Amino acid sequence: MRRLDFLAGAGALNYGHNHPALTAALVEYISKDGIAMSLDLHTEAKAAFLSTFAETAMSRCGLDHVVQFTGPTGTNAVEAAMKIARKVTGRTTIAAFTNGFHGMTLGALAATGNAAHRRGAGLPLPGGALLPYDGYLGPDVDTTAYFEALLCDPSSGFDWPAAVIVECVQGEGGLNVARADWLRNLSRVCRAHGVLLIVDDIQAGCGRSGGFFSFERSGIVPDIVTLSKSLSGSGLPMSIVLIRRDLDQWEPGEHNGTFRGNNLAFVTARAALDLFWRDDTFELEIARKAKRVHEALAGIAEDHPGVFAGQKGIGMMQGLLCVDAERAAAICGAAYERGLIIERAGPRDEVLKVFAPLTTPLAQLDEGLGILAEAVDVTSGQSCRNVA
Fold first, then answer.
1. Pairing assessment for the beta strands 4-5 and 340-341 based on DSSP bridges
2. Exposed, middle or buried, 2 (CB in 10 Å: 0-12/13-18/19+)?
3. In Å, how far are 176, 373, 379 from 37, measured between CA atoms?
4. Checking CA distances to 148, which of 42, 52, 247, 264 falls within 20 to 30 Å?
5. Which residues form a coiled coil (predicted)?
6. Contact predicate 190/31, CB 8 Å
7. Around Cβ 362, how many Cβ atoms within 10 Å?
């Protein structure tokens, strides 16, 4: 059965499945007997990626960070970011946020809010301290003020953190969007109190939230950034950490990994950067599609006031907040039966998560949104609308 993919490898396929330009670059590299795996040694493929990454992605924000190649998973990048923050500051606590998700290894789990994921560790998770994310205590509460109050009070009982790790848009946590002012306030508090700021851009980066980096709209410059998922452009495993130059204090081999040198991923990553991020054409295309998604979801929500409690997200990571998780599960199931792959997010899996590839043609985007609307109709006991 033909299916439309509104999951995109949980954000690892922002440029779609087997994009012909990226496939062609990979096939050409392999046909010329290009080296596939190189540990941490220099290769032409790595050099080409690094120069292109600097010219396209990093130049957008004026970043002058060093690039560390970690093991191929996003959680490994998070672990590396936490380790260097602890090494540089000499402090052990990493502050994170409610509903945040940073990976499934122990250090990342200590900074993850989801109780089910945390229980899976099988042992206590030290070294983390959770703070309320933007909006967690209501729309009028600036939770960065609470964070600063903890830091300023010697009797708060809050261990001074080495770093704060934050998602500018929480994907797994339910498509929660941090306001630009809140991010700027968080950056200010961190800077004023000597706390490093780590932005986890593994899911919200590479164009998913609009710009290449999710923090661009706020104008902040994080001390450390983690990237993975769609960085390779093609779903090949690849992760990096961007580290402010003065913080690059690793000893040789202090954080290594066998599969740091996936040259096949370097090739497709460079091709994606060249194709999509040399100018603002692709970014404008994302904005147009994001508007289309927002309007379609607004229509669905308006048609079903008892089913949804609102819209969530930004860019091409948007969704609908269902009044209960069972209804969300039923809608996803009905959509799958009709040819649409879509998943749920949020603390109770109550958010329908539209994660179509950024390159999805408008006709397919509309088709998928129509299937979603039909699935909502069916599970709500309504007759199906005309989605043609």
1. parallel
2. exposed
3. 37, 45, 49
4. 247
5. none
6. no
7. 11
* Tokens 């913080």 sit on residue: 247
DSSP string, 258-322: GGG-BHHHHHHHHHHHHHHSSSSHHHHHHHHHHHHHHHHHHHHHHH-TTTEEEEEEETTEEEEEE
CATH numeric code, 280-379: 3.90.1150.10
What angle is formed at CA 37 by the lines to CA 33 and CA 39, rounded to 5 degrees? 145
- Class of domain 20-276 (CATH, top level): alpha beta
Q: Are 309 and 322 in contact (CB under 8 A)?
A: yes
Residues 229-241: tens digit of each pLDDT = 999 999 999 999 9
Amino acid at 302: E
Report residue 59 as tokens.
Answer: 């130049």
Domain range list for the chain: 20-276, 280-379
**Rg of the chain in Å (alpha carbons):** 21
SS3 of 341, please? strand
Place of tokens 């396929």: 13
Distance CA 62, CA 65 (A): 9
Q: CA-CA distances (angstroms) from residue 375 to 10, 50, 309, 327, 352?
A: 21, 44, 17, 11, 12
Q: How many CB atoms lie within 10 A of CB 295?
A: 11
Sign, Cα dihedral of 104, 105, 110, 111: negative
Q: In what order do the strands lie in the sheet with 351-354?
A: 308-314, 317-322, 351-354, 343-345
What are the C-alpha distances in Å from 25 to residues 22, 42, 44, 360? 5, 20, 14, 21
Tens of pLDDT along 113-122? 999 999 999 9
pTM: 0.96
- Which sign, positive or negative, has the C-alpha torsion 258, 260, 262, 263? negative
